[in-house]
Amino acid sequence: MTIRRALHSGRLANVDAALWARESIVAAGAAAGTRAIDVQPWGGIGCRVYPDRGLDIGQAWFAGIPLSWVSQVGEAAPLDDLDGMAWGDAFGGGLLTTCGLRNVGSPSEGQGLHGTYSHLPAHDVAVTRYVAEDGAAVVVSGTVRDAVEPQFVVRRTIRVHAGVGRIEIEDVTVNEGRTTGAAPLLYHCNFGYPLWSPPAQLEVPATATVARDPASAVALDSWTLPPKIEMGPERVLEHDLGDLLEGSARISNEDLGITVALRWDRTTLPRLNQWLDPNPGMAVLGVEPANCSTRGRAADREAGLLTDLQAGSERRTSLTIEASTGDTA
Predict the structure, then answer these.
(1) Is the pLDDT higher at 327 or at 321?
(2) Which of 67, 197, 236, 294 is the most exposed place for a label (fewest CB within 10 A)?
(3) Considering the entire predicted model, what is its pTM?
(4) Residue 161 belongs to some domain of the structure
């Protein structure tokens, strides 16, 4: 019986029983005073959404299994000063941290590490429930505005489905300014223990893989597996997906009986970066669909690959994250 039929038949007294969602204010800790939205749909992915961090997604669970990596920083309020490498001081990890829209990667051309998006508040935030014969979902939406010229406005919609482990993120980015501006974008999806631990495996339909720097080259032959825990530099790779119209990546862990898959439209997110950090207390995998590299906007500009958004134009990007267990995996 679907949720809609259960409502109409009188078997379901309150839709909260199947599509639970609550807005709150964090009471203590580094994120005290910020907004949070907790979503727990029946049979779906439970997650925590941060309106004061651009409607990014923090912790997430499926079938009682943690999916996302959470850093030692944990849940934190946004920063006012994002010069240089300051962005990392409030990087809590989570299922989705959005990087951009002025810069992605190394500080460049006066822009700090990974830009400002994840430190901007969402306005006109709404939490609604979609119930139909073909499915049901909790829908979280809002608008994020970066008022510096050129003015970028992002209308984000997150659909957390019931009855299936699926989250859909859709962003419509509009340049409401008077000038064309660089608009790099990267979806920083973070996975950790217990999902990203032996015998986990990452699958990507890559035709070629390149290392960002010599320190990352050590991972060229082993990027599909969780690395040994050891002190050392982070490792960043970029995968070439050839002519595929849809990007995909798949993390599976046989011991847990769970698989997490990512899918995205390569029309607007043509590139895929991977982040590995083997250090104790890190042990993280980042799967990062993007329209840019992680070298910073100056490097992409020099390579002729910097993505601009013209005044008055818009760009639509989307990412689907799916989790499954047992036979469905």
Answers:
(1) 321
(2) 197
(3) 0.96
(4) no
Give the burial class of 126: count Cβ atoms within 10 A of its Cβ; 0-12 exposed, 13-18 middle, 19 or more buried.
exposed
- The number of helix segments (H) and strand segments (E) in the chain equals 2, 21
What does the DSSP 8-state code read for residue 256? T
Amino acid identity for residue 28 in this structure: A
Please indicate, yes or no, if residue 163 is contained in any of the structural domains: no
Across residues 43-64, what is the average pLDDT? Answer: 98
Flag whether 204 is in a domain: yes
CATH of the domain at 92: 2.70.98.10
Per-residue confidence (pLDDT) for residue 248, from 0 to 100: 98
Rounded to an integer, the average pLDDT of 14-31 is: 95
d(CA 290, CA 315): 13
Q: For residue 131, tell me if it sits in a domain.
A: no
pLDDT computed for residue 327 by the predictor: 55
What pLDDT, on a 0 to 100 scale, did the predictor assign at position 3? 84
Angle at 265 between CA 261 and CA 269, to 5 degrees: 100
pLDDT digits (tens, 9 = 90+) for 78-107: 999 999 999 999 999 999 999 999 999 999
Look up residue 72 and give its two tokens.
């030692």
Model pLDDT, residue 296: 97
CA angle 259, 265, 267 (to 5 degrees): 155
Domain that includes residue 60, residue range: 20-126+180-307
* Exposure b/e, 271-310, CB count within 10 A at least 16 = b: bbbbbbbbeeeebbbbbbbbbbbbbbbbbbeeeeebbebe
Q: How far is Cα 124 from Cα 189, in angstroms, rounded to an integer?
A: 25
243-291 pLDDT per residue, tens: 999 999 999 999 999 999 999 999 999 999 999 999 999 999 999 999 9
Domains contained in the chain, number: 1
Q: Identify the DSSP state of 96.
A: B
